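Hello again, I could really use a second opinion on something today. My current little project is about how a certain protein chain folds up. You're getting the sequence in one-letter code plus the fold written as tokens. Here's the protein in full, and shout if anything looks odd to you:
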Amino acid sequence: MGEGKQGVMVVEMPNSSSQNPITQLQNKFKELEIGFKGWLAKQSLPVEAAVVTATSGLQGAAIGGFMGTLTQDVSSSLPTPPPAANLNPQAMASFQQAQALAGGPLVQARNFAVMTGVNAGISCVLKRIRGKEDVQSSMAAAFGSGALFSLVSGMGGPNPVPNALTSGIFFALVQGGLFELGRKFSQPPAEDTHYIRTRSMLSSLGLQNYEKNFKKGLLTDNTLPLLTDSALRDVRIPPGPRLLILDQIQRDPELRKRQG
């Protein structure tokens, strides 16, 4: 009876952990996300682009509105020039740009919605048309979002079109640089060609953890036919794995031939 109760308790422990409401909520959200992406992939290009633009714009608006609440409405503290003030165009443009960047939650929500929505929409269209996502597509999306942001936010001042082009180019260069930087650091390290056979042998024996020992002792593929128990001991490989490695070398016809 006691053993039966203990067995029941052991079986029920995983069930109690699986009832974690946070875990259930995360799993449910992931299922919804996968289902939504699957549905979206089956839609036509205009529908997919519209949905992606709208959802990304809403996310950007939420972020911008939150940031606007933290910075408050700084534009209210900026002095407003009287209508009859005779300001030169450069000063007026600077004042308009300051107002555009210092808006409250609604202004920042609009600005971020434009940036994120347009960027995601253009990226979606280019990815569907070109069948890939590369630095050119990333820069094109950034150019469009930067140019439209400049027009909508009022940063363009008295020359909206040239300033929109300048902002688009700036956004494109920044995002292109970030794209290349991220791709560089996300690429796996190139495989060391000197340890291809060694890595395969260790993996087949379940001893892949000792690859670092081989590299530390410079025991490359070319040294496999020459390996001895003493050499493996020098790189701090335990007796059991040493026996398995030496036995594997003796069983390999090509390595045994090179020994002779």
Q: What stands out?
A: The chain has two domains: 40-74+94-186, 195-258. Residues 1-17 have pLDDT under 50 and may be disordered.
